[in-house]
Amino acid sequence: MVANDLRFTQSKSVLKTLAMNSFKAIDEGLYEINTRNERNYFNHKTISLKNRIRSSSVVPLITEIKYASPSKGVLADSKTFRVEEIASTMESAGSAGISILSQPYLFNGSITNVLKARRATTLPLLMKDIIVSDTQIKAAKTAGADCVLFIKSVFDRNLAEKDLETLIEYASSIGLETILEIHDIDEFKEAIKLQRHYSHDIHIIGINNRNLDTLETSLDTTINILSSVPKSGNTVISESGIERPEDIAGLLEVGTDGFLIGTSLMENPESISKRIKELTSSR
């Protein structure tokens, strides 16, 4: 698997590269699950990530299992730090939910990792990927995920095979919760309008502090958006670049409901439990 070099490097947009890698993974059959050898979780009763965030008595963290990223390269060795052990540790330490990267290229992820996590934890699972097709959504449900994430700009730039509304409705129809991810104020306003229209299909709005064209990250992204636009009752999480209790404290002040944290945990997998406990007590 490629961890450090972008595929399709003729593309100047990292986001476009990520979307094209998803199609490549689909074409290669990397989202296919052999249900003869693996349990089929398609009828698994959904565990609500939104409810876990809303009801958490500590700072709600969605802690992420990812072995590489486009910005950092390889983070951890999957053979040394196994998905099952990490998921169990995250649950014991107090995570509200677990995100698992299933994208093979640049993230060293796998749909099998979702299956492994499902066997190891009773927490709600987010299958994190660059979703461009219902093939990935069906795979998420079959692997035991409870939630999937849609990046709004992927659809705004016509990088997916179907429109956003169609894929969100499909995900919801098979029992998956959905996160609609945005990056700027205009996208946030549009996401709120979409949520009003698809109130039963869009469960969480995610603000990604990382620009997926440049990979630059700033927590001011969430702060500026939530300081400028009312949440209108939506559950809003902040994603990327969150490392310290002070980061969480500042984001809580502007109304953030939950936090997706991956890189800062996976860079030091031996300290995951300690770090989660530290961050969940940041209130």
UniProtKB/TrEMBL annotation:
One of its GO terms (molecular function) is phosphoribosylanthranilate isomerase activity. Keywords: Amino-acid biosynthesis, Aromatic amino acid biosynthesis, Decarboxylase, Lyase, Tryptophan biosynthesis. It catalyses: 1-(2-carboxyphenylamino)-1-deoxy-D-ribulose 5-phosphate + H(+) = (1S,2R)-1-C-(indol-3-yl)glycerol 3-phosphate + CO2 + H2O. SUPFAM superfamilies: Ribulose-phoshate binding barrel. Pfam families: IGPS. It is an enzyme of class 4 (lyase). It comes from the Archaea. Residues 42-279 form the Indole-3-glycerol phosphate synthase domain. GO terms for biological process: L-tryptophan biosynthetic process. Its EC number is 4.1.1.48. Pathway: Amino-acid biosynthesis; L-tryptophan biosynthesis; L-tryptophan from chorismate: step 4/5. This is indole-3-glycerol-phosphate synthase. It comes from Candidatus Nitrosocosmicus franklandianus. The lineage of its organism: Archaea, Nitrososphaerota, Nitrososphaeria, Nitrososphaerales, Nitrososphaeraceae.
